[in-house]
Automatic annotation (TrEMBL):
Native organism taxonomy: Bacteria, Bacillati, Actinomycetota, Actinomycetes, Micromonosporales
Name the UniProt record assigns to this protein: Inositol 2-dehydrogenase
Pfam family membership, one: GFO_IDH_MocA
NAD keyword on record: yes
Similarity remark: Belongs to the Gfo/Idh/MocA family.
Residue span, Gfo/Idh/MocA-like oxidoreductase N-terminal domain: 2-122
Organism encoding this protein: Paractinoplanes globisporus
């Protein structure tokens, strides 16, 4: 039984604790912590977990074999570094850290440890629909992929959500997904800012992020975070001989009164429910067998952060911003091969 400690017991922390305690096998949540001590005490009390005062204390708990970081993005670096220093596997929700410099410090720490400890929560790689889309591309049935059109729509966002987060917190999913989908790095980005959505107050919303991949594929991503009607994730790949796209938002359609009705998920918990289950079950298995995590690595977290940093600069300046990555450390090249 893998004993997991969870840092951050907000929305996704609680959702992951629910799946770790009621859905997945071979795992128990033995400890929790949150700067909001009342919420940590409440969540910990419900599952009989030790409630720690700090994340560092939780990492040092001998009853914690592995750590799940679900606190806000700017706090990820300190907890991931603490877990690496303790030699404990750490699953960190996206983003790995909010700047590429912070990600590089994590890469250095993991390289000094000598084997992979870190997995980043880019769950789209575990989603059935995205996996089927990748199979359609890899099979060659639409010919060489040329372009991809994406939409990432949130009904609303929390009050602490700021302008740059449209790139660093939201579009970062597409940034990771296209690297995985096309097996190529993003080489340049641009951001266009259309007419303002008044639902978002002062927030610059929506945005259009345009990514140029090193192999020539061009990807556009509409990011809308106050679209009201629901959580809608779309993707269509245009190939030489055809297109491949994600299906609709729901498996069931109701036809009545002269209309077709298809429910749209309310948020990411509903849309990616199965993907989070698979992602964490595979992580639990890999760690329990004494192996290294097999999902998105600290290198993937760094590469995504380098692109999102460039996206933030493109948003601020209106420029096309080029991206160059540091040389890939051996640890990750070996894991990929
Ligand atoms: N993979 C996904 O689809 C997905 C979905 C949602 C959130 N996330 C990521 O998960 C993280 C949390 O998001 P959320 O929606 O659950 O936010 P949230 O605000 O609901 O929860 C975050 C929790 O972290 C706590 N916290 C903040 N700083 C802390 C610190 N220094 N130490 C301990 N706890 C701290 C807060 O008090 C809060 O309870 C973010 O990085 C977000 O990007 C990923
Ligand atoms: O943290 C959340 C989460 O990553 C969701 O999957 C994304 O749609 C939101 O925009 C983001 O704020």
């Amino acid at each position: 039984m893998l004993k997991v400690g969870v840092i951050g017991t907000g929305m996704i922390g609680q959702d992951h604790i629910r799946r770790l305690t009621t859905v997945l096998n071979g795992v128990a949540v033995t400890a929790v912590t949150d700067v909001d001590t009342a919420v940590a005490a409440d969540v910990g009390g419900r599952i009989g977990a030790t409630v720690h005062a700090t994340g560092e204390e939780l990492v040092g708990d001998p009853a914690v074999d592995a750590v799940l970081v679900c606190s806000w993005g700017p706090t990820h670096e300190q907890y991931v570094l603490a877990a690496i220093a303790a030699g404990k596997p750490v699953f960190c929700e996206k983003p790995l850290a909010t700047t590429q410099e912070a990600c590089l410090r994590i890469l250095d720490a993991e390289a000094a440890h000598g084997s992979r400890l870190v997995q980043v929560g880019y769950m789209r790689r575990f989603d059935f629909a995205y996996r089927a889309l990748k199979m359609a591309v890899d099979s060659g049935e639409i010919g060489l992929p040329l372009m991809m059109h994406c939409a990432h729509r949130n009904a609303s966002v929390p009050p602490f959500y700021r302008g740059d987060m449209a790139i660093t917190d939201t579009a970062v999913h597409e940034i990771d997904m296209v690297r995985w989908m096309f097996g190529a790095e993003v080489s340049a980005v641009r951001v266009l800012v259309p007419r303002h959505n008044r639902n978002g107050g002062e927030l610059e919303d929506p945005l259009l992020l345009i990514m140029e991949m090193a192999d020539g594929v061009i990807v556009d991503v509409e990011v809308s975070v106050n679209i009201r009607y629901g959580y809608d994730i779309r993707g269509e790949i245009v190939g030489e001989n055809g297109t491949a796209s994600l299906g609709g938002p729901a498996p069931v359609a109701v036809r009545r009164d002269g209309r077709v009705g298809v429910p749209v998920p309310a948020d990411w918990r509903e849309r990616f429910l199965q993907a989070y289950d698979v992602e964490l079950q595979e992580w639990v298995h890999a760690i329990s067998l004494g192996g290294q995590p097999l999902g998105p690595s600290a290198w993937d977290g760094y590469a995504a952060a380098a692109v999102s940093d460039a996206g933030v600069e493109a948003l601020r300046t209106g420029n096309r911003v080029l991206i160059s990555l540091v040389d890939q450390p051996k640890l990750y090249a070996e894991a990929a091969g």
